[in-house]
Design a protein that fits this description.
single chain, about 90 residues, mainly beta, two-stranded antiparallel ribbon, 1 helix, flat
Length: about 90
């Protein structure tokens, strides 16, 4: 799993929030796709999700600023299971 502030794949974000050298970074990650399965990013407050041509999952998490003001919590938990399955659970 890779965690970064700035998204790397345009289909999971918008062009203006994409890392300026995203293509170079993705080339490196794709060379290691046997152990890199997902990229989690922020920066784009609306969030997004896509799978690229190499099968790498790209999750852009929503900003806590989009949660209702009366929300008592705004967080996310990534549950990773021994079976290889993962579940992203957002609150708020």
């Amino acid at each position: 799993l890779v965690f970064t502030h700035v998204p790397l794949y345009v289909s999971a974000t918008t062009q203006k929030t994409l890392a300026w050298n995203a293509d170079e970074i993705l080339d490196v990650l794709h060379q290691h796709r046997d152990c890199v399965v997902a990229v989690f990013a922020g920066h784009d407050h609306n969030g997004g999700y896509a799978v690229d041509d190499a099968g790498l999952h790209h999750v852009t998490m929503n900003s806590p600023l989009t949660a209702p003001a009366e929300s008592d919590s705004c967080c996310a938990v990534l549950e990773c299971h021994g079976s290889g399955e993962a579940r992203f659970v957002a609150h708020g």
